[in-house]
Amino acid sequence: MNHFSHRTWRLILHPPGRGAWNMAVDEAILEAAGCGDASPTLRLYAWEPPCLSLGHAQPFSDVDWLALQSKGWDVVRRPTGGRAILHADELTYSVCGPLDEPRLSGGVLESYRALSEALLSALHTLNIPAEAHEKPSAALPTQAVNHPTAQIAPENALLADNGRNNPVCFEVPSSYEITVGGKKLIGSAQARRKEGVLQHGSLPLHGDLTRVVQVLAFPDEVARQAAAQRLVQRATTAEAVLGRALAWQEAAEAFVAAFERELNLSLLPGELTASEVSRARELESAKYSAQEWTQKH
What we know:
single chain; alpha/beta; three-stranded mixed β-sheet; 10 strands
């Protein structure tokens, strides 16, 4: 257990939402919690309809737009780095707080390590034999945290040959990401800005992880199927590990208990403030639903 002094954070449990709204809420909480207008916050949520999310700097050309439209799925660009993820049948967590919050302070690896202990504990409570290890070869990019748009995130690209040209995320684990039997289970990404820290990540509860390759651009079907095969070999879901369905509520309860236990927190159930709702609506409309943001690069 980390030896942090006791603190009270806010807990928000949100029903499934659209991709643009989910990302707008995370950023609104980052701004409010980072500057002290709201408590540091653990938010647990889901997505409806399924949504393809792109990393902050990922080219939109990675998306098979016609395939995405035909399925009726959303697309959004995250404020954090990494590559494409299909959000469906999952529990998503986000943690937001100021840079001087001890559980988020220090370097990127320090905060990843602290939060990964809570994530691991939650999974162990659910009888999932997960692990997290530092990977010296998976160094994180370092950028100035006082820059208003500084992004610090793990290298999550799926490695095929040299890996640089593959659009799929959620396959190769970075330092302190969560694996079971060598397969990635929880993928996370982090943004550090002058106003605070945002880390969010996904626990796939069930479903076919290879659905993501159906809406990403590949040179041909051979390459698409090869990516799907690699994904099955290197990533997994909670259901595949447990051999049973894991409900969102059961997973959420395990996350809450583990964050309180491992990080010496009291999580006080709450809601977004009026100013956070207003800011989230603004961000949803002007940024996360806007083509200029989503389809850049």
